[in-house]
Amino acid sequence: MDKLPKIALPTILLIIVAIILVSKSAIVIGSGEAGVLYKTFGEGVVIDEPPLGEGFHLVAPWNKVFIYEVRQQEVFEKMKVLSSNGLDIQLDASAWFQPRFQDLGRLHQEKGDQYKERILLPAIRSAARSVVGRYTPEDLYSTKRDAIQNEIFEETKRIVEDQYIQLNEVLVRDVTLPATIKDAIERKLKQEQESLEYEFRLVSADKEAQRQRIEAQGKADANRILSASLTDKILQDKGIEATLKLSESPNAKVVVVGSGDSGLPLILGNN
Q1: Which of 16, 184, 255, 262 shows a CA-CA span of 20 to 30 A to 94?
Q2: pLDDT above 60 (res 3)
Q3: How far apart are CA 106 and CA 117, in angstroms?
Q4: Whether the predicted model's global pTM rises above the 0.85 cut
């Protein structure tokens, strides 16, 4: 067997080392992700340059890349809070958020990859306790829930706006009241609804009575005007017109002119 050339062994070793170095240096960042570069022999976390975007990257093998998800995410939280009158309320909420891309290096340096547990969730709890503490259970059960949700969002956003987190929305999924309080509120709402319905019926009946009075008054005024305009002469003329029309009928009859009490014709036959 022929011996390998003297240069072959070092070449093979160099190729192996190069493959190892490339494999250690090659970084692939997936869709919706970004990388924070850490320079071991430099300034550490790189914060004055944009994060590494999606795709293939080559970095020095002694450096590190920390990958973060930068698209919108959702976090859920169940918490117990107190209403304005001190009652325990269970609140289920979720938040839509994402780390701010341009501040990803600072987020990694100051907060770390556990920023959701360290920053976001405590902020949601604090905001929820503060907001719910200003409302009664009746408010939480009614249509004011949307207003409460908006207030929690605004207060949470104010807390995290300087923490390199972009808060997109806070959603109140469910509000659970003590059973006795819930039943009492439902009874009260039912009574209020029945009272409103009764008042509506009274108003409707009053309007109908007013309509009937106006209609009756109109008819009475019309009859009074008509009666005032009907003189004896007009009545006699109307009677004569009606008698003439009857006399033109083909049916046999006897008409006596001027024999009535008022001088109107009399019809004596109708065969």
Answers
A1: 184
A2: no
A3: 17
A4: no
